[in-house]
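COURSE: Structural Biology Practicum
ASSIGNMENT: Worksheet 4, Part C
STUDENT ID: 0417
INSTRUCTIONS: Below are two proteins. For each, the amino acid sequence is given first, followed by its structure token string. Answer the questions at the end about the second protein only.

PROTEIN I
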Amino acid sequence: MIVGLDHVSVATADLDTAAKAYAKLLGVAPQRGEADGIGRYARFELANMALVLFQHDGADDGLWSLALRADDEAETRRVLERRGLGAGSGPFLDTAATAGLRIAIVEHSATPVDPPTPDAVEALDHVVVRTANPDRAVALWGARLGLDFRLDRSNPVWGSRLLFFRCGGAVIEVGAALEALVTDAPDTLSGLAWRVRDPAAAHARIAAAGFDVSEVRKGRKPGTAVFTLRSGLPAAPALVIGGS
């Protein structure tokens, strides 16, 4: 079945500019190549997943898809089809059953990476998904895809209900507005949160690289510190988190 998050794909109208920006943010260099279906790409390998940027000249630039890693792709697809998640285009599941999200199933061995410096990004902490139907999200991520449903938390201060699903070394965080009506509107990928060992050092490095960053502040999880990138990063909103 599903054992982790293999990669996140980001579509960009300017691959070279986006690759340079992400190299500065992550503190690692990408692998460059060209592949059928996506053309030119830049792939950043991190400890628990990869980020794949690809050239895309349409209107849907930004977070494009998630690829979930299976220990046995054929068997996983067989089980998912029995759970109502049939095949869509290529490696993707049918978007009619995934609330509109592009979710691929792949069988891929993780690529070993060198330990990062304290101020570099070492891993993806979580992917942010926005939903207008949290119960549908529980059924998709927990019951059908079989991810570990760790937490269901509502907070009027945030105005949100947050659902957390463990996916290998990362988390799928699904958020819904508390006061919004439940609808069948498609879910959306809305951001990435990157994990660092030393938030202060990472903040200094990323700010020096030319990004507009917020101040370092306490995270919602006790013992963590976070900051956001307000500008300078094309295609996908980003949060940086560190601590316990």
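PROTEIN II
(use this one for the questions)
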Amino acid sequence: MDANPHFVSSQPDIHPAEEALDAYSRVVTSVAESVSPAVVRIQVEAARGRAGGGSGFVLTPDGFILTNSHVVHAAVRIKVWTPDSGEFTAQLVGDDPDTDLALVRIDAPALQAVQLGDSRKIRVGQLVVAIGNPFGFQYSVTAGVVSALGRTLRSQSGRLIEDVIQTDAALNPGNSGGPLVNASGEVIGVNTATILPGQGLCFAISISTAEFIATKLIRDGIVRRSFIGVQAQTAPLNRAIARHHNFMATGALLLAVEDGSPAASAGLQEGDLIVALDSQTVEGVDVLHRLLNEDKIGVWTRLTVLRGSKKLELKVLPGDRPA
């Protein structure tokens, strides 16, 4: 039967852009409602009456809360506000400035913990939501997309944080330590930094890094790394010497060697260029830091060094880096 040409639908035409906006709004609203109860506000008091704060999120129902190291580092008192249970005094479980991550704990009833996502499944362009307390405005929500993956970010300790997520979800002071969440309500990152005056240049530490560090902090209270006792910077090699020895174009130039350190005992000297560690190429100081991990503590390690035009093979016994 032919349709009545005089029939007029009572349903208004919906523009595709409006449908998309509605779907977008529904996702953001759903994520905010599901995750916000696990997001906390952190206030700290430091020496000489200095104060600061940021955000965090409940990692486990028994009160472990993940945040940024720079939020709680050197704090003498930490207060945590939860959406449902109010104010609590928090204990610092552990602090890792090298990854800008820290763990605190509160004794509070019926805490709602977040669901953790999988960093390996993150894709550029996917929707993300950031929740935190910028400038003290509690439980603010911003949304955007993953702008890039695999970024590196310099921590306050000077080491590089790897596997960093770049997002255009707006972050401001006070967002630090809050969660970056995917459309399924899973935490995929810990919001940590913005680049000012850049617009839309915000960064989060991947949840895979955060899980690894949190496990270490719960177990030991610290993240152990080895050290050899040098100050170094990335520097170019002489091209002819690099070609002769088949080295990369850069290495780690030693600016200073600490007295009594493993490096001093190994015979390293100021001006030496470290170009390899246990046959792994050292292209600069950041690679050297990365290779000096917990596994190297107390293990004899071979260093390939250029001293002038001479290639040296030295053995060093890395120690446990002081906290």
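ANSWER KEY EXCERPT:
Q1: The mean pLDDT is 89.
Q2: The domain at 115-220 is CATH 2.40.10.10 (Thrombin, subunit H).
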